[in-house]
Specification:
By secondary structure, this protein is α+β, with helices and mostly antiparallel strands. Helix content is about 30%, strand content about 25%. It starts with 12 loop residues before the first helix and ends with a strand. Bound molecules: coenzyme F420. The site of coenzyme F420 has 27 residues, from helix 1, strand 2 and helix 2.
Length: about 150
């Protein structure tokens, strides 16, 4: 299953290279954050302004088939712009975690749900905790569930 539209690769070379390698190898290559050994997933969204297909590597935070998508951007003061794509069209999202992408629906987690998924996210990728100390903004956490 794919999100229809013109794919617009990331302007960041390391990101678009990781996406290309991950997809062309069916998720068997370029599937970690650099040499950390920590797994990543590829999230496809629809550009909320361009309508183009955007692909974003994110750390893999998975629990019983659901995923957290953490809009950390290294603790930058602003959200990554894929955040606005998800907010605009949470029904046009796919995750690739292995050989092929699958459709998901996402919602932004708040309150206890966010606290639970934040704990899972930091367990999967401890730097998230440090990123949160670097910024005034509360790092958004989306929960993605497969569309059955
Ligand atoms: N980023 C995270 O936030 N969390 C992670 O866990 C994470 C892990 C990770 C692992 C591996 C890796 O290679 C990268 C990783 N990143 C992680 C970085 C992530 O892949 C993104 O590069 C980063 O989050 C920034 O996302 P971004 O969407 O802000 O990317 C920018 C650079 C970008 O692509 N900008 C485009 C451009 O042309 O400047 C526009 C993209 C876009 O979606 N445009 C929308 C459109 O309509 O087409 C409009 C968006 C708007 O409303 O302005």
């Amino acid at each position: 299953m794919t999100i229809e539209g013109t794919y617009e690769p990331s302007p960041a070379q390391w990101v678009r290279t990781q996406v290309a390698s991950y997809e062309s190898s069916g998720g068997t290559e370029a599937n970690t954050l650099r040499d950390t050994g920590l797994p990543i997933i590829i999230v496809t969204t629809l550009g909320n302004k361009s309508g183009h297909v955007r692909k974003t590597p994110l750390m893999r935070v998975e629990h019983e088939g659901q995923y957290a998508l953490v809009a950390s951007q290294g603790g930058a003061p602003t959200h990554p712009v894929w955040y606005y794509n998800l907010m605009a069209d949470p029904g046009s999202v796919a995750i690739q975690d292995g050989p092929a992408p699958f459709p998901v629906t996402v919602h932004e987690a708040t309150g206890d749900e966010r606290a639970l998924w934040w704990e899972r996210a930091v367990a999967a990728f401890p730097p998230y905790a440090e990123y949160q100390t670097k910024t005034e903004r509360t790092i958004p956490v989306f929960v993605a569930a497969r569309v059955s």
